[in-house]
Amino acid sequence: MTTSARRRSDTTRAAILTAARERFAADGYERATIRTIAAQAGIDPAMVMRYYGSKEKLFAAAAEFDLRLPNPRGVPHDELGRWAVGHFLTRWEADDTLMALLRAGVTNAAAAERLRDVFAHQVRPAVAAVATDPSEVRTRAGLVAAQILGLGLARYVLRLPPVDQMSHAELIGWVGPTIQRYLTGR
């Protein structure tokens, strides 16, 4: 493959993934179609299938998500809950992929598995870094994930008032202490 052909291929893949993330976030897994994704990317649907093979494989590629959790050891111990909520709110609003995963995870087993994987491999180590009792890490990480995913569902997917209208500071003030308890037991 020539350099220019490789560049075109990379550009096409990037356009497909961008369109897929937007459609999965807006429509959910079930309602998003290869045709609408291809139309948004400005390509033929056959190209989507050529590069990804199926809607499920396209979703898996589009759903790669890094929570970008910094090491919590540098955060003052009594600020961990507030820090975590603030970080998640910023990530939810910076990238549609997590919303797409959440929407799809409710109805699609592969998406739910991907979401579980993201939280198991990214949240659990962060919890392990600050937990005082190693035997509780799995439970504490699960509770953090449940609270954060519930907040995301209420605010960004269901748009439940007043949660969808609250400022970051208000949400951090309300949810931060709960996450703090899950992280540190206080």
Q: How does this structure look, described?
A:
- The protein is mainly α and 186 residues long.
- The chain folds into 2 domains: 3-62, Homeodomain-like (Arc Repressor Mutant, subunit A, Orthogonal Bundle), CATH 1.10.10.60; 72-184, no CATH class.
- It is built from 9 helices and no strands.
- It has helices spanning 3-31, 34-41, 45-52, 55-62, 80-94, 96-105, 109-130, 137-157, 168-184.
- Helix 1 crosses helix 4.
- The protein is elongated, with a radius of gyration of 19 Å.
- The termini are far apart.
- 31% of the residues are buried.
What's the total helix number? 9
One letter per element, helices H and strands E, the order comes to: HHHHHHHHH
State the helical fraction.
over 70%
Radius of gyration: 19 Å
Count of distinct strands:
0
**Largest sheet, if any?**
none
- SSE class: mainly alpha
Overall morphology:
elongated
Strand residues, percent: under 5%
Mean pLDDT: 90
What is the distance, rounded to the nearest whole angstrom, between the alpha carbons of the first and last residues? 58 Å
Number of separate structural domains: 2
Unreliable parts: none
Describe the secondary-structure layout:
Layout: H1 3-31, H2 34-41, H3 45-52, H4 55-62, H5 80-94, H6 96-105, H7 109-130, H8 137-157, H9 168-184
